[in-house]
Known about the structure:
Radius of gyration: 22 Å
CATH superfamily of the largest domain: FAD/NAD(P)-binding domain
CATH class of the largest domain: Alpha Beta
Number of helices: 12
Distance between the termini: 47 Å
Low-confidence stretches: none
Mean pLDDT: 93
Largest sheet: 8 strands, mixed
Strand content: 25-35%
Number of strands: 20
Helix content: 25-40%
CATH architecture of the largest domain: 3-Layer(bba) Sandwich
Shape: globular
Amino acid sequence: MYDFIIVGARCAGAATALFLAEQGYRILIMDQFEKPGPTLSTHIIGETDIYEKLGVHERMQASGIPAMTRMRIDLEGRVFESRITVTPRALSVRRELLDQWLFEELHRCPNVEIWTRTKAVTTLALKQRVIGVRFKHPNGKQDSVYGKVVIGADGRHSTIARSVRAELLMASRKHHLAVYYAYIRGLQSLPIPTVEWYWLDQGIMLCNPLDQGLHCVAIMQPEQRFREWGQHAAVPFMEQLRHIQTFVPRMNNAVIHGRVRGATSIESYVRKPYGDKWVLVGDAGAHLHPVSGTGIDNAVCTAEILANELVQFKKGACTWLEAMNTYMEQRDERIVPQYQNCLRTLERSMQALDAQSLQSLDVLCTFPGLVKELGHRATDIYSSLLEGPKHD
Length: 392
């Protein structure tokens, strides 16, 4: 009988296990992978301080990952750039590195048992209370394991969420772009490490510098175009990049490192994250389209919130319902505004600018005096945008 069974050992599950392990609880964490590998992600981390608590900050520092301090937005060749205001710096960390570092930290915890190549099949219940997990061994044989609390950290196709029939509180697929991403080697870096965002024709491209001179490039586009690219997406992927006039001059030596990965039929949703002795964290409980760029931060930071409330419950400081309600309130305070902004951003990707608007942008970008005047009026313009029906 474990104190906690955690299904899913990626960043959400591993972080939850690490925070709980500090309190000495007996923890089982299982995952169907043998070791963490690449996964669909924009790879952006903004809240870097939490990784010091998780013991992986020094490895981030030593990896040579550039600290991004600027944001560049390219609107059909019109470039807007400034320092990032929401965080002192952002890092773009390959998931096969981040998840492996967290996995290595788990191995340092004597009270954490790790089962790999183990697939959860369903939850076990007694009088509607979840008491364990039915799982499949690598050889295909099924077995059962029991715990006082079962935590689903198994991503947007969560077996645990499906098994307990977690309630959808909000969900949308409207305007949800399909995503292809790849690591690019040989792309000329910008002088200052920068988060790059490009508005395309009914789509978006993101580009972030990684370690070892690599860049992560994600192309988001309508599902029909995604299907046209098919399984052999490398050629059209690079062709799409060559159609971006402000990007192509940096591509003389650019090649795809590894393979192009993609996902379609993406949904943004927020689920009720708990029931009788089960709880969801990370994408299992709430998932936003990758355009939000907040998936890793949300997974790890809500893992800390969850662990704190579980500790309070175990210590008898509050009831299960009190702990879980506090967890849900703090999670939703963070994620629901992001969910709403994410949907607005995706809607904008479908809205083409007319020729007159683009010509006005050209004029603004051409005359320094107009840019200075724009600066003088920036507060009023910003307030006007916030008061409108659609804003970020």
